[in-house]
Amino acid sequence: MAFVTLNKKSLETNYNYLKNLFKEHDKEWAPVVKMLCGHKQFLEYLLSLGEEQVCDARLTNLKTIKSINSKVETIYIKPPAKRSIKNIVKYADVSFNTEFTTIKWLSEEAENQNKVHRIIIMIELGDLREGILGEHLLEFYKKVFELPNIKVVGIGANLNCLSGVMPSKDKLIQLSLYEQLIEAKFGKKIDYVTGGSSVMIPLLQKQQIPKGVNHFRIGETLFFGVDLFSNKTIPKMKNDVFLLHAEIIEITEKPVLPYGDLEENPSGELLEINPDDYGNTHRRAILDIGLLDIATTDFLIPVDKKLTFIGASSDMLVVDLQDTRKKYKIGDVVSFKMKYMGALRIMNSRYIEKRLI
Q1: What is the mean pLDDT of residues 172-188?
Q2: Do residues 190 and 203 lie in contact, with contact meaning Cβ atoms separated by under 8 Å?
Q3: Mean per-residue pLDDT, 5-34
Q4: Which residue out of 34, 171, 337, 354 is catalytically annotated?
Q5: Residue 242 and residue 297: Cα distance in Å, rounded?
Q6: Pick from 24, 210, 306, 350: most CB atoms within 10 A?
Q7: What pLDDT score does 262 carry?
Q8: Nearest to residue 286, comparing CAs of 316, 327, 306?
């Protein structure tokens, strides 16, 4: 059975690096924990590193967090669906919002639960995912401000999450100016100007973040140590927090090319034949994991760099062993580092065992 490990020491290293980085620049941050898919043991460990504030986009995960420690401040980081309003108010201390109708529902439910629900208004800065247009912000805020049991504690933006628009100092200055407009117009303090996600860290390191942007939500860099501008590991951070391990269930010397009439496989792929491979054989291994778990091999990085992917079906992954010097045998485990989307898929699979090491 394939399994995934979370390395406590590596995660602690990354957490402390980010904690010190944001403290050095006098900024606040909150871990985005949706990568953990509500896994209680992993969440308990992460919360032991620091428990002030966490972000997630799944209500069941926020419910688990509250069951571990009810004092942790939870932030729901996407606009709420109507059917989720009751549980948003129950399990999320703060939610991201872009629609007045939704905030009105939150207001009514917060009144029913005898709570004040806090919200962050998301503003569109060009990536074209969630966010109201900046020219509508003052009118929008005025209507929201009049609702009972609702408190606007911040404004925010997302970049590089849908269209790939990268952050810049100019865009963040624009976001900061919106906060100043609200405070000047209504005389109301906005606590958080939440500038974005892990993609902001290189700008922070280069001191390109305006003073007014004071809060960030960090997931990918926390778990993968990656600089999203260069796609390289940040010095002093770790890229092995998550490792996927799959067992070898067959090793055979087989022809490089299949034989017989070729059509598309179940994934809709049609194999391209290289005539130079006719007559050649390679040693290959089958691993006990497949597309049902990983979706695509594009998100997997073999720890043994001499392994190459041949292909995958729903439940099995085939790798070429021809160039490796390791003497693999049946029952051995092959390990992979993962990119963000690969690890997210694996963590969400109920077929993959999760281990804290």
Answers
A1: 94
A2: no
A3: 97
A4: 34
A5: 16
A6: 210
A7: 66
A8: 316
CA distance 46 to 32: 11
Residue 151 among the catalytic residues: no
> Which two three-digit tokens encode residue 162?
């849908």
155-158-163 Cα angle (round to 5): 150
- What CA–CA distance (Å, rounded) separates 33 from 347? 12
SS (H, E, C) 150-165: EEEEEEECCCCCCCCC
Beta-sheet strands, E only, within 137-227: 150-156, 192-194, 215-218, 226-227
Domains and CATH numbers, the chain: 8-228 (3.20.20.10), 242-356 (2.40.30)
Angle between helices 100-112 and 137-145 (to 10 degrees): 20
* pLDDT at residue 324 is higher than 80: yes
Confidence band of 270 (pLDDT split at 50, 70, 90): low
Give one DSSP letter per residue of 41-63, joined into a string.
Answer: HHHHHHHHH--SEEEES-HHHHH
Strand order in the sheet with 117-122: 28-31, 215-218, 192-194, 150-156, 117-122, 94-97, 73-76, 53-56
Nearest CA-CA partner of 89 in 124, 122, 114 = 114
Which among 177, 221, 226, 224 is positioned nearest to 196, based on CA atoms?
221
Which pair of tokens denotes residue 4?
A: 């995934």
Q: What is the pLDDT of residue 229?
A: 93
Mean pLDDT, rounded, for 87-105: 98
- pLDDT tens-digit profile of 224-268? 999 999 999 999 999 999 999 999 999 999 987 777 766 677 777
CA distances from 6 to 43, 64, 198 (A): 11, 18, 20
pLDDT attached to residue 178: 95
- Residue 17 identity (one-letter amino acid): Y
Side chain identity at 234, as an amino acid letter? I
